[in-house]
Design brief:
Elements lengths: L1 H20 L18 H5 L1 E11 L4 E13 L5 E9 L4 E10 L4 E5 L3 E10 L2 E12 L2 E13 L4 E10 L2 E12 L4
Antiparallel strand pairs: 1-2, 1-10, 2-3, 3-4, 4-5, 5-6, 6-7, 7-8, 8-9, 9-10
Length: 184
């Protein structure tokens, strides 16, 4: 009888550790000294292209896409990112972000399919960006939480890994690489 109780207690603690392990985050300040320095406004101003894929919770690729982004600063000093996605199944989507810069490397932003407001913080070559998207999945709308980590690499390559979750449970991830495009 005691062994069963110990097993139950161990299972409860392992389950709690598993779920609470996702609650802690990486401290963005650990990237403060890394170069090249990432600034969201200067990186995305102009034309940028991204190549990405969506992975399910098992890590299998489910979709691929390209995204063309035109970034500009509006009269209020906000960055407007006009994103145009082309998915491997031929579907096209558009998202327009309006992003505001705050003090200490902080950003906030909105888009029509973002629930509430996105928020982020940058340090060194990194940006941590969090938001909830209202995604249409098979005719139903699901609010999916995104936690994006972006890292600027030498030669202007920007790598993005976004973990997606619902009710705190990981449901997949998106991996994107970005590169500035020559003005045309």
């Amino acid at each position: 009888m005691k062994i069963r109780n110990h097993c139950r207690i161990a299972i409860v603690f392992m389950t709690a550790a598993f779920f609470l392990g996702g609650c802690g985050g990486i401290d963005i300040s650990r990237y403060a000294g890394l170069k090249p320095q990432f600034d969201l406004y200067s990186y995305f101003e102009g034309n940028t292209r991204g190549w990405g894929m969506v992975l399910n919770r098992q890590g299998a690729m489910t979709r691929q896409f390209t995204v063309d982004i035109v970034g500009s600063v509006n009269d209020e000093g906000n960055m407007v990112l006009d994103e145009r996605f082309l998915w491997n199944d031929g579907k096209r989507e558009r998202r327009v972000w309006t992003i505001r810069r705050a003090a200490d490397g902080r950003y906030s932003g909105t888009a029509s399919d973002v629930v509430g407001e996105a928020d982020g913080v940058s340090s060194g070559n990194a940006l941590w960006w969090k938001y909830t998207l209202a995604l249409d999945l098979d005719g139903s709308t699901w609010d999916i939480r995104f936690s994006d980590w972006l890292f600027l690499q030498p030669d202007g390559v920007l790598l993005n890994r976004a973990q997606m979750s619902k009710f705190g449970i990981r449901v997949g991830e998106v991996i994107i690489s970005f590169k500035k495009q020559d003005p045309t």
